[in-house]
Design a protein that fits this description.
The complex is a heterodimer of chains A (329) and B (340).
Chain A: H1 2-18, H2 22-38, H3 45-70, H4 78-92, H5 97-123, H6 129-147, H7 157-163, E1 166-167, E2 170-171, H8 172-188, H9 191-201, H10 203-208, H11 213-239, H12 248-260, H13 272-291, H14 299-320
Antiparallel strand pairs in A: 1-2
Chain B: H1 3-6, H2 9-37, H3 44-69, H4 79-94, H5 101-125, H6 130-149, H7 160-167, E1 169-170, E2 173-174, H8 175-193, H9 195-205, H10 207-212, H11 217-243, H12 255-264, H13 276-295, H14 299-318, H15 330-335
Antiparallel strand pairs in B: 1-2
Helix pairs in contact in B: 2-13, 3-8, 3-11, 3-12, 3-13, 4-5, 4-6, 4-11, 5-6, 5-11, 7-11, 8-9, 12-13, 13-14
Chain lengths: 329, 340
């Protein structure tokens, strides 16, 4: 009886160590430990809630970037896109409930349109995603500036009240994170999800076995930008105003989060959950720097160093466990 | 699979130059449009000024080019941060004196080489993805400059020699342009006619073939990243001479444009092909386009939108990847005959 239990535990541990999530979890746990040391009361419900609220945008945009990276592309325009969505929301929303009912679909439509443009440019025009999305990011940023030359504007107060309203553990930021996870879980096991991994790991082979690779790539961009919309919505709720420069840091941070989350930039390897953990890890790094009284001049240096260490760990780990190349949950 | 490898040398040569010529054609077109819109835009003085401004992006794009050509997803997003180091450390060591120039140059070059080799170590020997390694390295390097300068602006300035190199003129032609021409010529020779150049394209085009020919690929790429860092740091020194004083993220705004300049010139981001002439053309397209948009007084918003649209258009014309599952398209068909 007991032997069987230990066997089961051992097998469970072995499969955990084998999974692509192991390393992101390990790094997350390490950073969480450091964060708990420097920030007293980290696990108090109040602090957990406020941290969830402030971490949500990066975690969500990391999920969006993850889907796109898994399909073998990259998106340097997610930050500028978040700014544009934020400016659209702040331009449409007034005090009336009707305006919010109009603003949210408009923001989502804009997000999906941006995803579509990027997807078509990469999949059908076959432009290198790195440089094509750099070009489109200029367009999104320009459009955001057009809507809001100076930061400001007004967002219905209910949005931020609602964002910070907690009914026990249930709150909007948490729901947004669960929506992203649930959305991906629905897609992951279906055809689009499997094809995203297939196209990401070997486009030629996927094409040869009858997968419409360009369409799958566009699908990945659309899904990813759905998550980018959630991220922009979270940021808008946090700031309750519009700012065309708001999204800038999210572009590179989302890529860093994806990598810390164990996703290969070559595509096809890793998990969206890992990327979300990576987003939380990076957010905590910024927390730590703040609470450890590290002078702010060290922030860039520490952030870069942690990414490099996380990367190096990935390699050491991959060398030890060749089977990590599998896709995992 | 890759038609470049099976082409004759003559056709390859023609194709590369066709791309560069097409880009130079775009430059001429943009200047003509600028001249039609605002008087003085197409004047020789203004055009020389534009080319001179482009020189600094051109140097950083050279650093970017060699890394991209070396293949295997090669890219260097730390060129801007390393250029900042070159400018800030250079300014601190020069303290406005020509006497310190040799020391400043040596230290800056060594620092750039060291950062580049650190990138190369992680990319080439540890097998880490170049994009994120060099991105993280940019954070580390920029962070180090913040720490070094304690977040304050650096008050030191460049020296007279450096100023004249970056800002002076010889026979009416800005020295920066003369330096750029010399660098371009040297690149043409090194990339085409030396063992190192041949190796660079060989490693980028077909790693296995290069290995079988006896090239130690990881070690070679390691040094390519080192060279990229070295060129970036020295470019930062020249940028210091141009601007006069160093500030913390003096180089940051050149990072993505350096990648854009390489691709706009028609160099494949997949590596293995593409000469510096194309990059010079791509750099000029970007520089003249930005200046044109400024002179159109569209405001920042309009400028960004048009810049993005034109970049997409140029990429769609001659920056496309060759993958299966579709035609090569009308425009690229004009540039080079399609092989079935």
């Amino acid at each position: 009886m007991r032997a069987r239990w230990t066997q089961g535990a051992a097998r469970g541990l072995a499969s955990l160590a084998d999974s692509a999530l192991f390393l992101p979890l390990l790094i997350f746990a390490l950073i969480l430990l450091v964060n708990a040391i420097v920030q007293p009361g980290l696990f108090q419900p109040r602090i957990v809630r406020s941290n969830t609220a402030s971490f949500a945008p990066l975690i969500l945009v990391a999920a969006g970037q993850a889907v796109i990276v898994l399909s073998g592309s990259l998106d340097l325009s997610v930050g500028a896109g978040m700014s544009l969505i934020n400016c659209i929301l702040s331009a449409i929303m007034t005090d009336s409930v009707g305006s919010s009912a109009l603003a949210l679909p408009a923001g989502l439509a804009a997000a999906l349109l941006m995803g579509l443009v990027n997807g078509v440019a990469v999949a059908y025009l076959r432009l290198p995603s790195l440089i094509a999305t750099f070009a489109t990011s200029a367009i999104w940023f320009g459009a955001a500036l057009l809507l809001r030359p100076q930061p400001g504007g007004f967002v219905t107060p209910w949005i931020s009240t609602f964002y910070y309203l907690f009914l026990g553990p249930v709150a909007l930021p948490l729901l947004l994170l669960l929506a992203a996870l649930g959305g991906w879980a629905l897609v992951r096991r279906r055809r689009l999800g499997r094809y995203i991994y297939a196209v990401g790991s070997n486009e030629e082979a996927a094409y040869d076995s009858g997968v419409n690779a360009p369409r799958v790539k566009v699908g990945a961009y659309l899904l990813g930008w759905g998550f980018v919309f959630l991220a922009a919505f979270a940021v808008t709720a946090q700031m309750s105003s519009g700012d065309a420069y708001m999204g800038n840091p999210f572009t590179l941070n989302s890529i860093a989060a994806v990598v810390v989350g164990g996703i290969s930039l070559a595509g096809g390897k890793g998990t969206v959950l890992g990327a979300m953990l990576g987003g939380a890890t990076l957010s905590m790094v910024i927390n730590i720097i703040y609470y450890a009284n590290v002078p702010s001049v060290y922030q860039e240096f520490v952030k870069g160093s942690i990414i490099i260490v996380a990367l190096a760990l990935t390699i050491v780990y991959r060398r030890r466990v060749p089977r990590l190349a599998g896709t995992g949950p | 699979m890759n038609p470049v490898q099976t082409d004759s040398a003559a056709r390859l040569f023609w194709r590369e130059n066709a791309k560069a010529l097409a880009s130079f054609g775009v430059v001429v077109l943009l200047i003509a449009v600028g001249g039609a819109v605002s008087s003085g835009f197409a004047s020789s003085g203004h055009v020389l000024m534009l080319v001179k401004t482009g020189a600094f992006l051109g140097f950083l794009s050279l650093a970017q080019l060699i890394v991209i050509v070396s293949g295997n997803g090669g890219i260097d997003l730390s060129v801007g941060a390393v250029a900042s180091v070159g400018a800030v450390v250079g300014a601190a060591l020069l303290r406005g004196q020509d006497a310190n120039a040799a020391t400043a140059f040596a230290v800056v070059a060594a620092l750039g080489l060291a950062v580049g080799l650190a990138n190369g170590l992680m990319v080439s020997f540890l097998g880490l993805p170049p994009l994120i390694v060099t991105l993280a390295m940019a954070s580390v390097v920029n962070g180090s400059i913040y720490i070094y300068s304690k977040g304050l602006a650096v008050s030191a300035t460049s020296s007279p020699l450096l100023k004249s190199l970056s800002n002076g003129t010889t026979l009416g032609i800005p020295n920066a342009i003369l330096v750029w021409i010399a660098v371009s010529a040297a690149c043409g020779v090194v990339l085409k006619y030396t063992r190192t150049g041949v190796k660079l394209y060989g490693v980028g085009a077909n790693e296995l073939a290069a290995t079988l020919k006896g090239v130690k690929v990881p070690r070679f790429r390691f040094w390519v990243y080192g060279a990229s860092g070295l060129i970036s740091a020295v470019s930062g020194l020249l940028l210091l001479g141009y601007i006069g004083t160093a500030f913390l993220d003096i180089g940051s705004r050149y990072v993505l444009p350096s990648v854009a300049a390489v691709t706009i010139g028609g160099v494949s981001i997949q590596g293995g092909a593409g000469g510096y002439l194309q990059v010079v053309a791509g750099t000029l397209v970007l520089t003249v386009l930005s200046a044109l948009l400024v002179s159109l007084q569209t405001g920042e918003a309009g400028r960004q939108i048009v810049l993005g649209l034109v970049l997409l258009l140029l990429l769609a014309i001659y920056g496309r990847e060759r993958t299966r599952g579709g035609s090569l398209g009308f425009f690229s068909g004009l540039l080079h005959k399609r092989r079935s």
